[in-house]
Amino acid sequence: MNSLNVEEKPKVLVPAPAALDAWSTKTWADGIQINELKQLDTLSIETMHHTYEMTIINPDTAEVLVRGGEFFPEATLAQVRGASLRSSFIKLHGIYIGFNLELSVSSKPLITSRVRSIRLSQESDCQI
Question: Facing residues of 79 across strands?
Answer without folding.
Answer: 63, 104
